[in-house]
From TrEMBL:
Residues covered by the Xylose isomerase-like TIM barrel domain: 37-301
Species annotation: Streptomyces chryseus
Name this polypeptide is given: Xylose isomerase-like TIM barrel domain-containing protein
One Pfam match: AP_endonuc_2
Length: 303
């Protein structure tokens, strides 16, 4: 039986460009990538995600040099997909997946975070498609995601971890569990984002305890309950909700992260726990102090 002290070492904490207000490969409102790398290392995080493809250098040799000399390693890449739309989107999806997966593998990472497409525009709120999938679309989503998991594993040796996300079709407890029940555990794992799951009404500890074998990766995040209540009541899209500060600095919001980390440790598996505090756009001097305080807080939680 693994001791608590040993188990705590299985949680590998990192951060991501998202915590520095980075949502796009290029944007004048974002900090330069060099500053992100400098500050994430200064804040005490040894692991990072690639963020939006093209924000960090895409040449593996250059990126390895830039991260290596700062003592940083890459935990995962990220892709966006709309696999419920059918086989006709596969080729376009695979083109972007292949680029990200190639760089992710070259950086020695083992995970590819897969975020479903938004049913409404995350900035304007324009409705792009129906909020609820049909049974046929659910079946297509499950089969296409399994195919993605199989191909990514066979071609790149990576594991996909699907990220439930606000304003997507994989969001609430009902939809997350439906997705997990419909997919092969050998091919599809979950990136549990504690903030997004709380945003959509879910209980992260309960999900870990019920579907622990499917939890392959963690994003640590909290939501401000008061702002969330207003966002839900007024049906505010995710982007403007972030602008209102719905994702907040821990430990000010929900869910409490110490019980989440304790539940994750009880799984007795290696897990990344990557801090993501959505705050696009934000002043360039805002992220570093938050990142330092968050790292201290997570250490107090045993992470």
């Amino acid at each position: 039986m693994t001791s608590p002290a040993t188990a705590s070492h299985r949680i590998r904490v990192g951060s991501a460009p998202d915590s520095w207000g980075v949502w796009f490969p290029e944007d004048p409102l974002q900090v330069p990538w060099e500053r992100f790398l400098d500050e994430v290392a200064e804040a005490g995080y040894p692991w990072i995600e690639l963020g939006p493809y093209g924000y960090l250098p895409t040449d593996p040799a250059r990126l390895a040099d830039e991260t290596g000399r700062r003592g940083l390693s890459v935990s995962a890449g990220t892709v966006f997909t709309g696999l419920h739309r059918g086989p006709e989107v596969w080729d376009a999806t695979w083109r972007q997946v292949a680029d990200v997966a190639e760089l992710t593998r070259a950086m020695g990472a083992e995970h590819l975070v897969v975020i479903p497409s938004f049913w409404r525009d995350d900035r304007t709120g324009a409705v792009l498609e129906e909020r609820t999938l049909t049974p046929a679309q659910w079946r297509t989503l499950a089969r296409q995601t399994e195919r993605l998991g199989r191909e990514v594993r066979e071609r790149y040796g990576l594991k996909i971890v699907v990220h439930p996300h606000a304003d997507t079709h994989i969001d609430t407890e009902e939809n997350v569990t439906r997705f997990l029940d419909a997919t092969d555990a050998d091919l599809v794992s979950l990136c549990l984002d504690t903030g997004h799951y709380a945003y959509c009404g879910g209980d992260s500890v309960e999900l870990i305890e019920t579907y622990g074998e499917r939890i392959g990766y963690l994003h640590l995040k909290q939501v401000d309950p008061a702002i969330l209540a207003e966002v839900v009541a007024k049906e505010v899209p995710f982007g403007p909700a972030v602008g209102r500060g719905v994702m907040c600095e821990p430990p000010a919001g929900v869910p409490a992260l110490e019980p989440v980390l304790a539940a994750a440790r009880r799984l007795d598996v290696d897990l990344f726990a990557i801090v993501e505090q959505d705050m696009y756009p934000c002043p360039p001097d805002k992220p570093l102090p938050i990142a330092r305080r968050t790292r201290r807080f997570l250490r107090s939680c045993g992470a």
